[in-house]
Amino acid sequence: MNKLLSSAKAKFFLEVVLVTFIFFASITFAQTGGISEGIKVNVLSTTPTSTTLEFVLTDYNQTIIKIGETDFVNYVVPGSISFMERGFPQLPMHRASIIIPDLAGMNYRVIDQQLNEIATDPVAPSKGHFTRNIDPETVAYTFDQFYNSDNWYPQTNFSTDNPYIIKDLRGLTVQFNPMQYNPAEHKLRICTRLVVEIYSDENIPAINPLIRTKNLDGISKEFTGIYKSLFVNYGFSYYDYVPLPENGKLLIVYPTAFASNIAPFVQWKQERGLETLTAEYPTQTGSGSAALKTYIQNLYNSAGSVTFIVFVGESNQIPTLSGQYEGAPSDPSYVKLAGSDAYPDAFVSRISPTSSANLDYVLQKLINYEKYPDGGLWYSKGIGVASDEGTPPDYTRASWLKDMLVDDMNFTHVDEIYDPGATATQVTNAINEGRSIINYIGHGSGVSWSTTGYGNSQIHQLSNGNKNPFIIDVSCLNGNFTDTECMDEAWLRAGDINNFKGAIAAFGSSTNASWVPPCDMQNHSVSLITSREMKSVGGICFNGIMHAMDLWGGSSGEGLKLMEQYNIFGDCSMLLTFGMIPDSTAPTAVADLTTVNPNSNSVTLNWTAPYDSSMGGVVSYDIRYSTNPIVTDVDFENAPFVLFGGNADTAGVQKSYVLKQLNFSSTYFIAIKAMDLWGNKSLMSNVSNATTWDAPNLSVSPDSLHRTVLTNTTLVDSIVISNISSTNSSLDFSVELTNNTFPEKLTAKIIELTKNHNKKASRNNPIITKGSSFRGAGGPDLFGYQWIDSNDPQGPEYVWEEISTTGTLVTNWIATSTYSALDEGKAGPFNLGFNFKYYGVPYTQVYFCSNGFISFSDITDAGMSNESIPGTDIPNNLIAALWDDLDGKTTGKVYYKSSADKFIVEYKDWPGYYSGTGPFTFQIVLHKNGRINIYYKTILGSSNSSSVGIENLDGTDGLQVVRDASYLANNLALMFYAEPEWLFSNNFQGTIFNGNSVGIILNFVTDDLELGDYSMDMEISTNDPVNPFIVVPIRMTVTNEVPVELLSFNAEMVDGNVVLNWSTATETNNSGFSVERAVRSQQSPISNWENTGFVSGKGTTTEKTFYSYSDKNEKPGTYLYRLKQIDFDGTFSYSNEIEVEVTGPKDFALYQNYPNPFNPSTTIKFALPIKTNLSLSVYNTLGEKVAEIFNGELEEGYHEMMFDASGLSSGIYFYKIESENYSATKKLMLLK
Question: DSSP letters along 1054-1107, please?
Fold first, then answer.
């Protein structure tokens, strides 16, 4: 190729090739685990606090070049890059990254070094970095004042950057400078060996610490290849991590207009086994890039954080961000999610269709690539397109990429379409024939490649069908998607549903790209493809980016620029299979599908994973449900469905899934089919059926809350949420505190109010009741314990340490009743091995109960019937992981294991006494620091008759997480702690079964608060079809004025009416009192409050004032009354509540009308001791009926009816009441 250069170009090449050649050398050798041709990096040791590295210089080259009339020397170390500081000596350096501790400040010390000094000609300076729109031939050499000094450059032979965070791990880039130059002495100092220890230093502040909200159980599977290639100490000793089995979650963000279009794409991703979330912009995410970034951040911080993000829409539909370095249109800026660095912590891409129809086509093209590979020869063919500019020329770099594909991946052909002479026709012909990868290196215009002139118009005229390549585009502007259609968008959009063409993904820059760093990225990405270290588009592209960031500045300079400007167009979760042929063998059918735990809108499914011969086994399940019987495959395919995936299952794994959003009071028939990676479906499973419960009935009291509070005081109040349905039902609720202007001195917690367990159960007299459960977090109790679970974003990780092979089997069971010891029995005591403080009392021993709890007191009653927690009945002093009537005499074992800092109890395959409950596998872990963790590995059958919680020695204090409700699930983690390590959550959720209530307890503290109003909204979302969403306004007025002071408030019954009496000592700006009434019944603890009347106040007065109000309450029952005191400015506060029992009449009675005589209307009152059908009529003196006031059925109680005699003349009339059991007549007089 060099022979094609002009003489002028050849002269320039001679001057600069040796200066810039070293850029590529770093790419060629940096992929081989830390060993390069010129510098060898050895990891000598790793500990939790330090890593010791050895750098050995094995080879270097030197070449004399002439600048002007002076000879300069250029030193090159193969496999390393060079300093690129313009005007300073271009000397080699070698950069690598290591894993470091999460929270430490880092320092280093040189342990050993071997130095030599040699005489040298002047060292050539660097021209520095510049973008591809600048011709290197036009850039002149410059010399900094350093060349006139008596100093060494660089000043040291070792340095470190600031720490950075990549998803699971914290890293540090270290730099070995094997050569230093002194221009005054004409000396080159060469370090042939350097041993350095990088260690934690408590005297140095930690920069960019990794603050974990969960323990690191293992590393993210999709990032494993990144860590291997990035960190030289990965896999050594302390830093040897186990990849997690999950692939990570996929988030698809789409505008409202594309809501229906994405459904097939979501379905395929779930079938592939990728847990897929969707978010509609801006309805769910909030409007604007800042809100979208916050939404993604919150999702990333949640349990099982997101790995892949796909934006569906153009930049005016889904906004992008502007890069920090140069304002580049930058989707990757959305995934700076951990720490203060710029390293990406997830993968992001964009699909930007021109229309709804174009989106349907693009998504189908992407699905086809993964789902239907044809195994053709085109997968082993590629294209290289490159300019003849740069040093080395771009075509040389492209040839190196070709060599990797041919040598390492057995490609049979790679087109070399290089300048000079490259044409658009060559590109078109090659793509139409079928190519799986295209590497471009050259100039770009935004809509075309300068080399060949190939651009958007040619892309849209392709005819390559489903032979769609993946493209890495090293050029300027071809990824700028914020203006007109850029070239990298055209690759994806080209074609339609009847004419497939174009590419499946492109990776390009939205701004002017630099000459060297993007080539380092491209080279590393291709090496990952050829080594099969990474398979997803996102993993390949972003790994290449992070490698180049390590080489060229990390979170600043060229590294930051590169990370922000390169965008993926396509699906970052797509697997580049390169034609791996799918098998056609379906999994075996599920044969043991069962349904348990029916609720109002859900039912739990349990089954055993079947066998499949494909890679990864079964990856998803097609679950079908219908109110019509499912008998045939036609029935199955016509039924509504949900896809359950996310984990590759081996045969025999126990599976469980909660089928939600079912209709009330409906019988459902349910069947499933297992699917493998290629979409092969098993035969239909056995059909199971279940009937959902009735709809719940929500009651919230009060419907608003306003409290006037003096400064430096504390006030506690509550909002009660009840399920007042009289039939079996479950109220699913979530509570969120929004629009909050309260200071941090407002706290909230959730507690259970209604407790149904007032009676002991027995085997002969089982009592089946339902209670409530909460998800997320709860507490504190009186002592200060709180709980949090893995449903909460800040909750504990599920960490299972299997002890059945390393622990001790429990064999010394002792019966506590007439039943078997493994059914109703205890074991112990067992020594913990340390002092464990529980409710302030230190314990050294613990007892185990066969019914799923442990206790620090001797167990005299095994608690066959689980109780509400806390409760003074024995057993007490317990930790209940799954307190129920369990029975381990047929199967199941209990193990324990003690270590220096924790004690583990494991109930393994422990069944329930009743059929359909269990077996269960769970652990209770007691930590020396007082923390309690409970882990649920396998929850089979019904578990909604159990209690979970903790309780003190005498049962007067404790925390209940769930009682007799659905809550427990596979891989659930739960933690109790007296001094919580988590932040307060303003979101509560759970389930309330009929006849139960929960209270949201609000604690207002006004210490040091400014006077004024504070407000927020309590938003309650439920599955009650009548009240799905309720907002309770909450307001606090902080004042230093004396409020209305209520002295007394009482009630009495007078002639069937409730008479309220109250008095005040003082009043300030008191407009008056609204009288509010609520009904209390056995089915409804508290119904909604209603206003029954208003009594005016006295304004402002210091005199004692008496008030009275009569409420004509005709229906017997128990009533609550309260006063709502309202100021003239509208602020209000509530009195305490008083209870009144309104009794019905004992006998029938008809009372004299009033007034009498009357004109023209009067009131007639009567009493009914029972519910009665009756008529009330008016007759004249001739016995003729002149009016019928009422005819129908009325409840028992006192009733009043108005009679309007406007149409009658003056005179005597009679009114008569008639029923089956009673008849009476009275006289009335009309005077006009």
Answer: ETTEEEEEEEEEEEEEEEEEEEEEEEE-SS-SS---EEEEEEEEEEEESS-EEE
pLDDT of residue 984: 37
Q: Which of 332-336, 682-686, 736-740, 774-778 comes out lowest in average pLDDT?
A: 774-778
Going from the C-alpha of 18 to that of each of 21, 36, 63, 67, 389, the distances in angstroms are 5, 19, 7, 13, 15
Strand pairing of 381-386 and 413-418?
parallel
Two tokens at 1210?
Answer: 């003056």
Burial 892-906 (b: 16+ CB within 10 A, else e): bebbbbbeeebbbbb
CA–CA dist 161, 549 (Å, integer): 12
Directed axis angle between helix 517-531 and helix 557-565, to 10°?
A: 60
Q: Are strands 714-723 and 996-1005 parallel, antiparallel or unpaired?
A: antiparallel
- Mean model confidence pLDDT for the chain: 84
Structure tokens at 239: 């830093």
Q: Quick one: pLDDT band at residue 751, thresholds 50, 70, 90?
A: low
Coil, strand or helix at 301: helix
* 678 within 8 A of 583, measured Cβ to Cβ: yes
Give the CA radius of gyration of the chain: 39
Give the C-alpha separation, 847 to 858, whole Å.
7
User: Is there a contact between 446 and 486 (Cβ–Cβ < 8 Å)?
Assistant: yes
| Cα angle, residue 1068 at apex, residues 1062 and 1070 outer, rounded to 5° | 60
**Residue range 228-269, pLDDT digits in tens:** 878 888 877 555 554 444 457 899 999 999 999 999 999 888
Quote the pLDDT of residue 284: 92
Residues 918-952 have pLDDT tens digits of 789 999 999 887 889 999 998 887 777 889 999 99
**pLDDT per residue over 546-584, tens digit each?**
888 888 877 788 888 999 999 999 999 998 877 666 677
DSSP 176-233: E--EEEETTTTEEEEEEEEEEEEEE-TTSPPSS----SS---SB-GGGHHHHHHHBTT
For the chain, helix (H) and strand (E) counts, in that order, are 13, 72
Distance (Å) of CA 983 to CA 295, 778, 959: 19, 12, 18
Task: Rounding to the nearest 10 degrees, give the CA dihedral for residues 1188, 1193, 1194, 1199.
Answer: 10
Q: Report if pTM > 0.85.
A: no
Give the per-residue pLDDT at 122: 95
DSSP string, 681-730: BPPP---EEEE--BPP-EEEE-S-EEEEEETT-EEEEEEEEEE--SSSBE
DSSP 8-state code for residue 443 = -
Does residue 127 contact residue 144 with C-beta atoms inside 8 Å?
no
Per-residue confidence at 985, pLDDT binned at 50, 70, 90? Answer: very low
